[in-house]
Amino acid sequence: MDRTWWNINMPYTKKVEQKEYQRLWYLKNKNRIRIITKNKRYINKDIINKRKREIYHSNDIKRKEILKKCKIYTNNHKEEKGEYDKKYYLKNKAKILKRCYRYNREKYGISLEQYSKMINDQGNRCAICANPLENPGIGKGPCIDHSHCTGLIRGILCRGCNSGLGNFKDNINNLKKAVIYLSKYKI
Asked: Under the phi-then-psi rule, with left for phi > 0, alpha for psi from -120 to 50, and beta for the rest, what region is 87?
């Protein structure tokens, strides 16, 4: 076999030798390759993340696959995930709070000062059950209670009370019936 210009520097002549040469080269340069790849990912992380988001939002099948994998992982690693979430919250508390406040501002049109004033006016307690409000976090902290009819903000509630009102669809008659029902079975 004659050696052509593209393989003249390679010390092999057969396909098997080529594969063996590549394998040995990879083993010898593995750490160098990892460093280069890591640097490329770090430099291009915005482009890579943008591409991943585009794929995620444009492809329903791919999105369902990703969500399914995440759900399986979460179910299999609940304790580890709980520990990770706590550490992440403590490490990124300011960023998380900022995100929560930004979400509240965009959804309800209130500023951080107004939100803080509402919590302070209530003594940092739920407006219904008077339990202390937990530290805010995504899906964990206090909720801004608002009327679904008028959109007006009524107060700050703990997650349990807010869910209860939501389950009763803000219907006073149903809430009165629930009180009568509970008082009937009071021990």
From this structure: alpha
Enter the tokens of residue 38. 């890591």
Cβ atoms of 178 and 168 closer than 8 Å = yes
Calpha distance 61→31 (Å, rounded): 36
Backbone angles phi, psi at 12, to 5 degrees: -135, 160
Q: Give the chain's domains with CATH numbers.
A: 90-181 (3.40.1800.10)
Give the end-to-end CA distance of the chain in Å, rounded to a whole number. 95
CA-wise closest residue to 21 among 37, 9, 33: 9
How many Cα atoms sit within 13 Å of 15 on the Cβ side? Answer: 0
Query: 101: which residues sit within 8 A by CB, 6+ positions away?
Result: 112, 115
Torsion over CA: 182, 143, 136, 63 (sign): positive
What single-letter amino acid sits at 85? D
Predicted TM-score (pTM) of the model is 0.50
Tell me which amino acid residue 121 is: D
Summarised one tens digit per residue, pLDDT across range 3-31 is 444 455 666 667 788 888 888 888 998 99
- The tokens for 56 are 């995620």
